[in-house]
Amino acid sequence: xxxxxxxxxxxxxxxxxxxxxxxxxxxxxxxxxxxxxxxxxxxxxxxxxxxxxxxxxxxxxxxxxxxxxxxxxxxxxxxxxxxxxxxxxxx
Length: 91
Prior knowledge:
This protein is α/β, with parallel strands linked by helices. Helix content is 36%, strand content 13%.
């Protein structure tokens, strides 16, 4: 449909719960995780991750849940943050 988004998962399954499981299997602590999100379905993940960025222009709930705000998608916001965090040459 146009203008609607439907997402389905089992009860209790979120991006955060799956990321937590994956990290536990690999011995990665939440405080070592960097997450990006822009919509309400990202809120739990943004709250769980040690460092989180919501995209500028993202949903208000995502921005409220995140530690930081990244530049918008159309300005390659994720890449800009990663370049800064890892001291990479800017493209």
